[in-house]
Amino acid sequence: MTLMDKKYLQLLSKEFPNIDSAASEIVNLSAIRSLPKGTEYFFSDMHGEYEAFLHMLKSASGMIKIKIDLTLGKTVSSAEREALAALIYYPDKEQKRLKKAGLLTDEWRSLTIYRLIIVLEAVSAKYTRSRVRNSIPQDMVYILDELLNVTDDIVKDYYYDVIITTILDTGIADHFIKELCKVIQSLAIDSLHIIGDIFDRGPRADIIMDELMKMHDVDIQWGNHDISWMGAVSGNRALIANVIRISMRYNNFDILEDGYGLNLRALAVFAGEVYKDDPCTIFMPHTLDDNIYDPVDTQLVAKMHKAITIIQLKLESQLIKRHPEWGMDDRELFSNIDTEKGTVKLGGKTYDLLDKNFPTVDKADPLALTDEENELMTVLANSFMHSDKLCEHMRFLYTNGSMYKTINGNLLFHGCIPLDEKGELLSVKIEGEEYSGKALLDKLDEVANKAYFLHSGDEKENSADLLWYLWCGPRSPLYGKDKMAFFERYFIDDHDLHTENYNAYYQFSENADVCMKILEMFGLDPEKGHIINGHVPVKIKNGESPVKAGGKLFVIDGGISKAYQNATGIAGYTLICDSHSLNLAEHKPFIAGESEHTPTLHLVERFDHRANICDTDRGEELLAKINDLRELLKAYRSGIIKQKKDIDRRTL
Ligand SMILES: O=P(O)(O)OC[C@H]1O[C@](O)(COP(=O)(O)O)[C@@H](O)[C@@H]1O
Ligand SMILES: [Mn+2]
Asked: Could you say which residues form the signal peptide (predicted)?
């Protein structure tokens, strides 16, 4: 045994001080490994649509309703089963509604508790008792533990009656029901994978973040929109302008002002003065049906939208000039505008601009911010970096997020692995070296962390600049398109110029062999693994499918984002992986207040045997721990490490 091994075992012996404690932990861990694996849920591209997303979470994408139907289908009417589902998803709201209607009777309460316990039994069947106990509020642990674990049917009936009657007598039934609903919700989703783009377009990504932070086990693979917010909070001013611009474009003040407490007054005052007599027609915000009642004056929003867009265009061109290694000169368009004629030169041709009023652009130095623009950006940057809530959410994105994740044999990332026209890996130069494929994603992960966690200096600034590249650069794995036609889409009325071409990955990855090679590159079993992506809306109504490459690749951006539902024809996908199979839940557009939103489930792959925890990454970790404990047992038995008295675990 090496000195290191001995030191490690000594550390472990603090937790398991003698043969008995180490041996019983081995038994515990082995028992856990033999349970069926928990259900994993994969979501992507929520784009601030918190109501629809929260509904998917609360309902476990329809799985709770399926459990209700399975357990109560033979004895309870379908209307009552639907009502029970609505109660589990929205206990407060439903209880209030029933109370108002005079339906909150003791008979309803006892029947409901009885039914909820049956559903709870079904959703908790796969878990250890301790995992279930940990999900139950302290004051209910004893009662529920008893109710869930009586096995004798005759005793059970009597026991249930006594406990439920006592719950009613003591007046805690409504609280008990509410908490039961929450426990069912939280146990229904064992782990959650978010394949990126939580932010932008829809109203309240901050509410989604709050909800994710409450989840028991969640990981996030950053999307280009998430990285844009992360770069903004890291201090990159082009990205600060970008997130504000997108919020103005969709008339979303709530996330900035109410969600994050960012003060937009300085922008409103600046825009109101500089663009006073300018109608800013092309900058009128989109109004999705969520925000038509927004009290903000749309004329003023249009001015703010224009002000921040012009600043962003200048800052982006400055960035491109500062980083010739990105090879993005062709995207440096703002220097080519002729402010007097109101035109722009692109690819040798001159185009008329849809907006010709540029009061802040100096003909001699078009990329320079005016003093006022500079001051405004300083104010905005300060408020971004000092919003506690925003920093808390960004930290969560960093701690629980990454460029990609390999989990249980699958590979998860938002956009693409940049490939050239021949299908070869494309590289990006970072800190003087070329990176491609997995190494590129690993390096970018490191860069993203440096952008946020370094305190100051060139390295921090250059790393934050790279987050802008990740937002829209032609070889960005998060963006995956040759250009972002941001300038053209606003200013030029020529649809050919608006076209953005997807990276060759999107053709090559239709081929199972290519997917298998990529899985191998990430150290996964190509036969068993899958790639799971978001980012590209799947246009079901045009006959597209989220299942690609013969089932090796899933693209699950089905359009939770309302802005894209007309194009996709549905309202998003959830990929669900339980111990038996992989399923896709296809969601209907979410209409608040309507109770029935159960998605259509499609089976996409049935496993050849039921997957247990020992078949998962967690199972591997547990096995490693079991092996360490076996070594510890040997060390105790041979006297290399001395046993100590047991610690009192009740106090832990
Ligand atoms: O529809 P909008 O909000 O104008 O955004 C369009 C822009 O968004 C993008 O699609 C990027 O966002 P996604 O990652 O959600 O696709 C760009 O390619 C495009 O220029
Ligand atoms: Mn995206």
From this structure: none
